[in-house]
Structures are given as structure tokens and as C-alpha cells.
Write a structure and sequence with these properties.
Blueprint: E1 2-7, E2 18-21, H1 32-35, E3 39-40, H2 48-55, H3 61-74, H4 78-85, E4 90-95, H5 105-115
Parallel strand pairs: 1-4, 2-3, 2-4
Helix pairs in contact: 2-3
């Protein structure tokens, strides 16, 4: 399985495969019909508390990553999410965040690569 990271505001492409919005909040200014997503996985996005503590600079990316991986492991919705995506050849994880490297996407990608081996 190939896992790609992309901003939701970028143009959809045929190579995107199964498009997953991994944000808990709907992207500002984006109409649902323009998003071209296959799944809005808000239930496996970082919790509101974790997101606010990270964006509020209370914790750094390393601590955010550690806590988010723990949330994913303990989240009862994770298995259902994995079932929905495990047969896809390509998954594009999407976010509205400008700096993808500092978002939940690299953490989620790492988690998925380890779970779907």
C-alpha cells in the first residue's frame, strides 16, 4: 500500500487513490462537494484537547506524536478505520494544515504503515 500526504486545498489527482481527510474539523472555505474525499476520518484525528495543546505550543511535535500514537492505539474507532482502508492500493491522507510535516499526517502515516504490514 502506498500512503501519500497532501493538503486538502490541492487539486485532486487520479493518482490519489482513496482520499482520506484526517482532520477533526472541516477545512475552512472548502465546500464538501469540492473536497473529493472518500472518507472523512474525524474519529481517528487527534483529540480536541491534544490538538489545542499542540497548536497552543504547550507541547512540542515529539510529545504530540507520542500522545497521538497512544490515542490511535486506544481509540475504539481505529479498527473500523483500518478495515475501511486496508484493501486500498493508494491512500492519500489529507489535512488543511499548511505545514504537513508538523501535522498529524506523518504520525498517522507511520501508524498505518506499522499496522498494515
Amino acid at each position: 500500500m502506498k500512503i501519500v500526504e497532501k493538503r486538502i486545498y490541492e487539486e485532486p489527482d487520479e493518482s490519489d487513490g482513496f482520499r482520506v481527510l484526517a482532520d477533526r474539523l472541516w477545512p475552512r472555505g472548502m465546500k464538501k462537494e469540492d473536497a473529493h474525499i472518500d472518507l472523512w476520518a474525524k474519529e481517528i484525528a487527534p483529540s480536541t484537547e491534544l490538538r489545542k495543546s499542540y497548536h497552543g505550543k504547550e507541547i512540542d511535535f515529539k510529545e504530540f506524536s507520542k500522545k497521538y500514537l497512544k490515542e490511535l492505539d486506544e481509540n475504539p474507532e481505529t479498527e473500523s478505520f483500518l478495515d475501511k482502508i486496508k484493501k486500498q492500493k493508494t491512500i492519500t491522507l489529507m489535512t488543511s494544515v499548511k505545514e504537513i510535516e508538523g501535522s498529524e499526517l506523518p504520525v498517522l502515516k507511520f501508524f498505518l504503515e506499522n499496522k498494515l504490514k
